[in-house]
Amino acid sequence: MNRERSSSQREISEVETRKTRSRYDRISPVYDLFESLAERSKISSWRRLLFQQVEGPTMLEVGVGTGKNFPYYPPGLEVTAIDLSEGMLSRARKKLANYPSARINLRIMDVQKLDLEEGSFDTAVATFVFCSVSLGLSGNYTLYRY
Question: Region Disordered: what ranges (predicted)?
Answer without folding.
Answer: 1-21
